[in-house]
Amino acid sequence: MVIDVRRAYFNAPARREVFVEIPPEDWEPGDEAKCARLRSSLYGTRDAARNWEEELRKFLESIGGKVGVASTCVYSFGNKDVKAAVHGDDLILSGQPEELEWIRKEFTKRFEIRVQVLSDGNGEIKILNRIIRKNFGGITIEADPRHVEAIIEQLGLAGAKGLSTPCEVEKERRRETPHLTSSTAENEEEDVSLDFEQARRYRGIAARLNYLAQDRPDLKFAALKASRNMSSPRDRDWGILKRVGRYLITRPRAICSFRWQDESSTKIWACSDSDWAGDKKTRKSTTGGCLWHGAHLLKVWAKTQKAISLSSAEAELYAAVHCASEALGVQSILKDLGKDAAVGFGMDASAALALISREGLGKARHVETQWLWIQKAVREGRLQVSKIHGELNPADLMTKPLCVDKIDEFMKKMSYTFV
User: Fold this and answer.
1) Which residues pair with 47 in a beta bridge?
2) Which of 17, 39, 181, 203 has the fewest C-beta atoms under 10 angstroms from its C-beta?
């Protein structure tokens, strides 16, 4: 069930003195040279969201809710088997129908709400514009298809020919420009900065692509590449977006399936990968990873590492630490929801695996000691780390351009289907 609280901030009292101009509809003779003091939180004031969060927390606790320790956005109800996640003025709840109906009635007493229920009789709802469907085999999630339509339209690609990959694969580049090295080809393309209006359009499309990529692992690396030069985009960056647009013409929709699984499927498993010095301009490496709970994909990520790694092993270490952090964070949130889960993760780099499995820096003495907490976590058994074959590592999809066959293979492993 999804509860949307209407005009949520107005339900939270102002917790500091805020004065505003008297609105024209409330102005009366004698109000000249006067202002109004807010009694309720007003949209646009800096503490309105915080005030609403406090008000909602008080309400949920008053009806038996217990706020999470790891995340204050999750609640459990000890007297009822109801779990809740809060996102602004939206609440996503799971539980038995009679318990959800009780929650709905309690909210109705206090707030003006709009409710969506995902049930056998209503097999489709929207959460943050994502399309959630329920069927006999489980639940599916699909990104808002309007993002794809908007990207294609804003790039002026309506009716254009589609492509099979979102990023140019190195072999493809060499085949098309055999007389140039890849670095020379890149320098040839990054010669002209976009004008002000084009740069503004670029940033808007790149931001939309970033949002879409949260639900499309096949777009994660392309979105990362498009975001690297947001402050000063060039012609070559515009070309990155246009290629993504052509790929979306070929594959406009991708649906992630969450098949029903029993309570015994409680393990959290993640995998990490890095592309050492993959950013040719800054020589920074790329971190990528995926995370599952049982057979359910919960999260993917692609990020540029802040430190410049001196070796591939160092880059893989940073990627593994990020992966372990994500996995332990999900473990803590599940604990807030009353679920226990062991954590394991895999990586394809033997040198980094050896560094994680021992104690201390060894010869890698330039590495900051803040990264070594992972050694203790492995030694204490909080993390189980294993080696996986590089060709079978789904995290590859988030760190480098791949051919269409590899994209299909890894998307299938993540329970995605293209439609």
Assistant:
1) none
2) 17
C-beta neighbour count of 160 within 10 angstroms: 13
Instruction: List the beta bridge partners of residue 255.
Output: 142, 417
Contact 199, 233 (CB under 8 A): yes
Confidence band, pLDDT 50/70/90 cuts, at residue 94: very high
> What distance separates the 2 farthest-apart alpha carbons in the chain?
80
Q: What is the total residue count of the chain?
A: 419
- Give 370's contacts (C-beta < 8 A, 6+ positions apart): none
Average pLDDT, the chain: 91
The model's pLDDT over 20-70, given as tens digits with 9 standing for 90+, comes to 999 889 889 988 889 999 999 999 999 999 999 999 999 999 999 999 999
CA-closest candidate to residue 396, choices 273, 314, 300, 218: 273
Give the residue among 337, 335, 307 at the shortest CA–CA distance from 319.
Answer: 307
Q: Where are the domains of the chain?
A: 2-117, 145-250, 262-408
Question: Can you tell me the distance from the alpha carbon of 231 to that of 168, in angstroms, rounded to the nearest whole number?
Answer: 23
- The answer to whether the CB of 347 falls within 8 A of the CB of 271 is yes
Q: Which two tokens stand for residue 275?
A: 């592309």
Burial label for 296, CB within 10 Å (0-12, 13-18, 19+), is middle
CATH T-level assignment (fold) for domain 262-408: Nucleotidyltransferase; domain 5 (3.30.420)
| Side chain identity at residue 120, one-letter code | D
Query: Residue 89 and residue 11: Cα distance in Å, rounded?
Result: 11
Cβ within 8 Å of residue 60, ≥6 positions away: 67, 75, 84
Neighbours of 241 (CB within 10 A): 23
